[in-house]
Amino acid sequence: MKKVKINFLKIFKRFEIPLASGIIIIFSGILTYKLLIPNLFKAREMNEDGKLLRKKITNLSNKKKILSSVDERLLRDNFIKLNYVVPDNKDYVLLFTTLDQLQQKIGISITRTDFQLGVISTSSALLKRNKTADNYIVPVTLEVIGTIEQLQSFLGELSNLSGRLITAEQIKIEVLDFGLVKAIISGRTYFNPLPKQLGPVETEIPEFNQNYQEIFKKILENQYPIEVIEETQENVPVGKNNLFL
Amino acid sequence: MNKKSINLLIIAEPEPYYLTRLKKISTWVSAILVSIFLITYIVSLIYIQANNKDYQQMKKQYEELEKDIQKTKSTESIYLTTIGILDTIKKIKASDNLIIINTLPLIYNNRNEGTNIIISSIDNQGPVSFSVKSESIETLENFIEELNQLENNGNFTNIQAAGIIRETDGSYNLSVNLNANKPRNEKS
């Protein structure tokens, strides 16, 4: 028994350094697994969160900067003008008002208006969106009689943001007597449903860039004064925007 | 008297080469591993401490900004709605070729005496067709010359005569098909 013990001690003594090293290596491994790896994960997570937070802060700072430069009163006061150019629904009243005003202004005679309301039975009509132009379209066909000069002015006025925006896609002109022409204009008018809710607070918002400023300025210049628009809307003998509801 | 000497010290057996090598290597490996662990651990602790402070500051800044934005919700609402409409108008105007509005005066305003456009059709994508009535062959030639001029100026391309009819009163009726180009200086 004693001999065995002596032999064991002999062997232990012989391998004590490699054994101690082995224990240290195993202990280091355990510490790495328990302390270092979680720490590294935490550091990485913190780094990623930091980056994300920094991005959100940049977005919010930009948003705050943009919003603080906005003249809310100007936008609010003139929103009706914008809504007059591209309303939030098909709004046939606005279309006929625009055409009536153009008749008076230019002297052209609109003999027929075909305004294709499309689906009216459900709100699904509002979901039919033109994917290419990213807006809602209502086809319109107009038959007008006037001189060629009046016709040119009329076409210009349809899309110069002075009233409901209408773009001409095709025109067929026939010459009549007394220097008059009859034109059938196939075109499009547009509507743009308003967003029902705002996005998350950190959502980026576009800048009111030069393009937007120019369009906004043009609308303010070309549109009828707000009082006239409101008065016109009140004078139209209908009480609702939708004929069928 | 002779003394007997007994050597009680056991002569150490020489260590095998592999054991010496193993001792050396294991010592180095364990020392290196411990050092790496300690350095990495200390660095990670310092990094976490430092970043935690930054992170907390950023979080505070974010919360403050969030509160500020929440206060301007009504401004954001009217701003986004306005931008939405302006963006729609911008896209509509950008997709409008303005071909009709530009081609109409070219066909109707610049014609010679003695020629009349009877009927015409203009598509905003480019195709144009019309019939012109001319009192004589000379006025018709002048009209065609003018069309060629417009083609040279880049207003039209691919002008084709679809047919010509001579009426009993000596007048000529010419049908023309052509392609109108987009105006060069498009402006919304």
TrEMBL record, chain A:
Membrane-spanning residues: 17-36
Protein name: Uncharacterized protein
Originating species: Candidatus Gottesmanbacteria bacterium RIFCSPHIGHO2_02_FULL_39_14
Keywords: Membrane, Transmembrane, Transmembrane helix
TrEMBL record, chain B:
Coiled coil: 48-75, 133-160
Keyword terms of this UniProt record: Coiled coil, Membrane, Transmembrane, Transmembrane helix
Membrane-spanning parts: 25-48
Entry protein name: PilN domain-containing protein
Organism: Candidatus Gottesmanbacteria bacterium RIFCSPHIGHO2_02_FULL_39_14
